[in-house]
Amino acid sequence: MNAMKMLRILTMTAALAAPTAMAGWGIGPLVGMNLANPDVDGRGSKSITGWAFGARLETGMLPFLSLMFDPMLVKTGAQFDASSTDASGEGDFVALEIPALLKAQIKILNLGVYGFLGPDLVINTQASGKVTQSEAASAGFAGQVGAGVLIGIAPFVDLTADARYSHGFTDLIDGAKGDIKHWRSRDTRLTLGVLLHTPL
Known about the structure:
two-stranded antiparallel sheet, Porin, single chain
C-alpha cells in the first residue's frame, strides 16, 4: 500500500515537473541590418540603412513558449527636410536596445517557426548629424513584434533568421530641434543568429 502511494506521488510529481523539465536555456550572437523610417513630426523623411548586433538570451517557460532577451546595439536615423534650415539634413542615433519578448515556437525535427512581441527599452549612446548628443533623449520606450525561422545545424545548435518591426512610443530628441518637436523611431530589422541551447 505504501509502495502504491509512493508510486502515485512520484507520478504526480513527474507530471507537474514535466513543463519545467522541458524548459531550457539558450544563448548566442545576433547580427543584422536596420531599416529606419522614423516619424519626424509626420513629415516626409528618407530611410537610412543601419546596422545591428548583439546577443540573444532565451529561457523556456513551456515547451512552446519562452522569454527572450535580445540586447542589441543599433544604428538608426533619417534624412529629413524641415522648413528651418538648421533642422534639415540627416540625424543618426546609436542606441542600446533591450527588448523583453514573449516567444511562441513550433519545431518539427530540425525546422521551426516562431513569433514574438514585447516592450523595448531604448538607451541612446550616440547622436550625430544635425542632432547632437545633448539634444538626444537619454532613453525611450518602444515595442517590437516579429517572426522568424530556425534550422537545427547540430545537436543543441540552431541557426535563426527573423524580421521584426520596432515602433517607438517616445521621442528620440529631448525637446524641439528647430521646428521639429517629435522624432519617434519606426524601424524594420532583419537579423541572423546562432543559438546554443540546452536540451529541451
